[in-house]
């Protein structure tokens, strides 16, 4: 074989995934099967697991478009990443307070974030670790990056769950139903009922009470199901992985391909919907190669605004107790 | 009073109960779920049913996959322990099976797995009489034979995932040496999936150029470049991955999804899959082993006749004899 020129990754789309637990490795496989990145690096502390997962992924490459995959505990491997996805995080121990857990997670990120930025100064950070809104704030503080380049996976997956459950009631494809959940990812997320529609026909036009306490069709039960979903899935199969992986891979594609699609992701929301604290919450954002370029200003009801602001205040209090 | 849904939609006709390309996967362990997620993300099937005995796990996995549908083309998914859910499948993928216990003989494992298939295969065929069966459970060549016997289906419609995965590992490892994309490197491993698989060195090439043309000893004992080591690595891979991460999933998931795509779309691609090989390469026994096959909507339509060396032929025949004894 003749060699023409040496090849180094100069251009191309490189993604790093930190953490190869169920969520991290599902994200990696999702990105791989959908041909979203040309290069992917997996970083974690468990060397054997990393090596095993790397081999297993590589052995499937003949069935897909080629991509370069590396794995290891050395962050130098992540150099040159356009996007770094952080899934690493601690799980709550028995009897541990929320504040203690938050501090432990802050300490974990202290070890990860500066190294990622050191090796890829131009990278965008996508934080998946829970509680995602808090940890996106922490990651931003630790990174020194402009806020547009630190994004939390936020309520993108809540919105996807919402749309799937709505699609079951409407009996049309989930991608033909539109609906947004914003605010805090998890128990206090905010469904924006005015935005739920099929083919431009709003649910609120068909049923003005939809989502309120007067609603005889009880559409609100769908939002409750969304919140319960994560706990339910954990109870049934041990951990959530697939939906989260698809959520993150679609955000990855938007960033790498500069698609400028709109997704509900966690961003800096001081000044939005009357929020006065420096916190990260999910709102619909335009995503591109340089991160978040725009925030979509939805018209919220008084109730929705209040809920949103309340989440902001709670987050701000927790943040003020953290040691960086 | 009309509901919001009734107000929104006016029905023109009833939607179909089962769409054209329905796939059932039996077994939602790591392999089964990797197959399911592979099929889902690559938009290969329009309907997917998961069957197992663990109801909670089934429900949890179903929910988790469905919650990602807003990011993909729609696919109808169902899950449960009732085989009636599998009705109308074009393809049934069987991943369920027992794992070897400590100190268990191979023969004992085979008997346990045969009993598991007895509970499965007839039900699948009962609910989808026109289906194809794709067997993944190990030891796959034996299990494919057992599934065939239990199914009453013509042999062309019972396929084992076989050495499709071994070939993929082979091509990946070759691609690392050549430093080109894995799918620009060609190479076939045939015969028994696992320890006694047969690498066909005469077929290994990049852009039609064979290592044997560049190094006539390639793959033999006299080979100073030790190309044969690559085959050894392939055989070791599964054990290595199991040791490192506990199980293999992704590569087999992709291997199965690509076979699924070929079947559902009648693409007539060629893959190394386990098929009935009595009469091929001098095999006299009624066994299943992997050879390159043309795969389409009605199953295996052709077997590619490779020119094997004397050594390769005798290895295949030896595997056939061993399998026949166990059977």
Automatic annotation (TrEMBL), chain A:
Residue ranges annotated for the Lactate/malate dehydrogenase C-terminal domain, each copy included: 155-317
Residue numbers annotated as active site: 185
Binding site for NAD(+): 19-24, 44, 105
EC number(s) recorded for this UniProt protein: 1.1.1.27
Top enzyme class: oxidoreductase
CDD domains cross-referenced by the UniProt entry: LDH_1
Residue ranges annotated for the Lactate/malate dehydrogenase N-terminal domain, each copy included: 13-152
Pathway where it operates: Fermentation; pyruvate fermentation to lactate; (S)-lactate from pyruvate: step 1/1
Reactions the enzyme catalyzes: (S)-lactate + NAD(+) = pyruvate + NADH + H(+)
Oxidoreductase found in the keyword field: yes
One annotated GO molecular function: L-lactate dehydrogenase (NAD+) activity
GO BP annotation list: lactate metabolic process
Keyword Nucleotide-binding listed: no
GO CC terms of this entry: cytoplasm
Keywords annotated in UniProt: NAD, Oxidoreductase
Superkingdom assignment: Eukaryota
Pfam families named in the record: Ldh_1_C (PF02866), Ldh_1_N (PF00056)
InterPro entries xrefs: L-lactate/malate_DH (IPR001557), L-lactate_DH (IPR011304), L-lactate_DH_AS (IPR018177), Lactate/malate_DH_C (IPR022383), Lactate/malate_DH_N (IPR001236), Lactate_DH/Glyco_Ohase_4_C (IPR015955), NAD(P)-bd_dom_sf (IPR036291)
PANTHER family in alphabetical order: L-2-HYDROXYCARBOXYLATE DEHYDROGENASE (NAD(P)(+)), L-LACTATE DEHYDROGENASE
Protein family (similarity comment): Belongs to the LDH/MDH superfamily. LDH family.
Name of the featured protein: L-lactate dehydrogenase
Lineage: Eukaryota, Metazoa, Ecdysozoa, Arthropoda, Crustacea
Gene: ldhB
From TrEMBL, chain B:
Transmembrane parts of this sequence: none
Domain Lactate/malate dehydrogenase C-terminal: from-to ranges: 163-325
Catalytic activity: (S)-lactate + NAD(+) = pyruvate + NADH + H(+)
Single GO MF descriptor: L-lactate dehydrogenase (NAD+) activity
Pathway(s): Fermentation; pyruvate fermentation to lactate; (S)-lactate from pyruvate: step 1/1
Annotated ranges, domain Lactate/malate dehydrogenase N-terminal: 22-160
Entry-linked InterPro entries: L-lactate/malate_DH, L-lactate_DH, L-lactate_DH_AS, Lactate/malate_DH_C, Lactate/malate_DH_N, Lactate_DH/Glyco_Ohase_4_C, NAD(P)-bd_dom_sf
Pfam families, A to Z: Ldh_1_C, Ldh_1_N
UniProt name for this protein: L-lactate dehydrogenase
Residues at the active site: 193 (proton acceptor)
EC number, UniProt record: 1.1.1.27
Keywords recorded for this protein, A-Z: NAD, Oxidoreductase
Protein encoded by which gene: ldhA
A Gene Ontology cellular-component term: cytoplasm
Family stated for the protein in its record: Belongs to the LDH/MDH superfamily. LDH family.
NCBIfam families the UniProt entry points to: L-LDH-NAD, PRK00066.1
Annotated binding of NAD(+), by residue: 27-32, 52, 113, 136-138
GO BP of this protein: lactate metabolic process
Enzyme kind, highest EC tier: oxidoreductase
Cited CDD domains: LDH_1
């Amino acid at each position: 074989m003749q060699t023409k020129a040496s090849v180094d990754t100069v251009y191309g789309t490189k993604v790093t995934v930190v953490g190869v637990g169920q969520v991290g490795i599902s994200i990696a496989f999702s990105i791989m099967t959908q041909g979203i990145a040309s290069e992917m690096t997996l970083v974690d502390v468990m060397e054997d697991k990393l090596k095993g997962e790397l081999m297993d992924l590589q052995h499937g490459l003949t069935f897909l478009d080629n991509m370069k995959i590396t794995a290891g505990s050395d962050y130098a491997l992540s150099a040159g990443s356009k996007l770094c996805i952080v899934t690493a995080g601690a799980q709550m121990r028995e009897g541990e307070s929320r504040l203690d857990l938050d501090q432990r997670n802050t300490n974990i990120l202290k070890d990860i974030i500066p190294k990622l930025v050191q090796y890829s100064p131009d990278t965008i950070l996508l934080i998946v670790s829970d509680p995602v809104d808090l940890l996106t704030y922490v990651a931003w503080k630790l990174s020194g990056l402009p806020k547009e380049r630190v994004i939390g996976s936020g309520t993108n997956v809540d919105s996807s769950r919402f749309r799937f459950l709505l699609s079951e009631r409407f009996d049309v494809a989930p991608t033909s139903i539109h609906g947004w959940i914003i605010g805090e990812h998890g128990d206090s997320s905010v469904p924006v009922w005015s935005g739920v529609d099929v083919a431009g026909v709003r649910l609120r036009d068909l049923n003005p009470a939809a989502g309120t306490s007067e609603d005889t069709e009880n559409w609100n039960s769908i939002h409750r199901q969304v919140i319960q979903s994560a706990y339910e899935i954990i109870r049934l199969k041990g951990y959530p992985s697939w939906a989260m992986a698809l959520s993150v891979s679609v955000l990855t594609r938007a960033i790498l391909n500069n698609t400028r699609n709109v997704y509900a992701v966690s961003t800096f929301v001081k000044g939005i919907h009357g929020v006065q604290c420096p916190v990260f919450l999910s709102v619909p954002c335009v995503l591109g190669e340089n991160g978040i370029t725009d925030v979509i200003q939805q018209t919220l009801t008084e109730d929705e605004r209040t809920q949103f602001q309340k989440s902001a205040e709670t987050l701000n209090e927790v943040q003020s107790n953290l040691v960086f | 009073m009309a509901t919001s849904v009734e107000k929104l939609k006016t029905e023109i006709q009833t939607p179909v109960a089962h769409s054209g390309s329905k796939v059932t996967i039996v077994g939602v362990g790591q392999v089964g779920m990797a197959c399911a997620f592979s099929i889902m993300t690559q938009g290969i099937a329009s309907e997917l049913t998961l069957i197992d005995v663990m109801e909670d796990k089934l429900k949890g996995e179903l929910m988790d996959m469905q919650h990602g549908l807003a990011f993909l083309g729609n696919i109808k998914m169902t899950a449960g322990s009732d085989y009636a859910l599998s009705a109308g499948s074009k393809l049934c993928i069987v991943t369920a099976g027992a794992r070897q216990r400590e100190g268990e003989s191979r023969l004992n494992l085979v008997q346990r797995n045969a009993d598991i298939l007895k509970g499965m295969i007839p039900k699948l065929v009962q609910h989808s009489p026109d289906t194809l069966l794709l067997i993944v459970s190990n030891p796959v060549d034996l299990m494919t034979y057992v599934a065939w016997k239990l199914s009453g289906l013509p042999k062309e419609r019972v396929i084992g995932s076989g050495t499709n995965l071994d070939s993929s590992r082979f091509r990946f490892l070759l691609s690392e040496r050549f430093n080109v994309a894995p799918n620009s490197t060609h190479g076939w491993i045939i015969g028994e999936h696992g320890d006694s698989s047969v690498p066909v060195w005469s077929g290994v090439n990049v852009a039609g150029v064979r290592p044997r043309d560049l190094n006539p000893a390639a793959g033999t004992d006299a080979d100073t470049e030790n190309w044969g080591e690559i085959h050894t690595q392939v055989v070791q891979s599964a054990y290595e991955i199991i040791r490192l991460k506990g199980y293999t999933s992704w590569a087999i998931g992709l291997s199965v999804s690509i076979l699924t795509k070929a079947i559902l779309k009648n693409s007539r691609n060629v893959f190394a899959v386990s098929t009935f090989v009595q009469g091929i390469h001098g095999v006299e026994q009624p066994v299943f082993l992997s050879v390159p096959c043309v795969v389409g909507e009605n199953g295996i339509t052709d077997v590619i006749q490779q020119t094997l060396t004397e050594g390769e032929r005798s290895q295949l025949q030896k595997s056939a004899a061993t399998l026949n004894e166990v059977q």
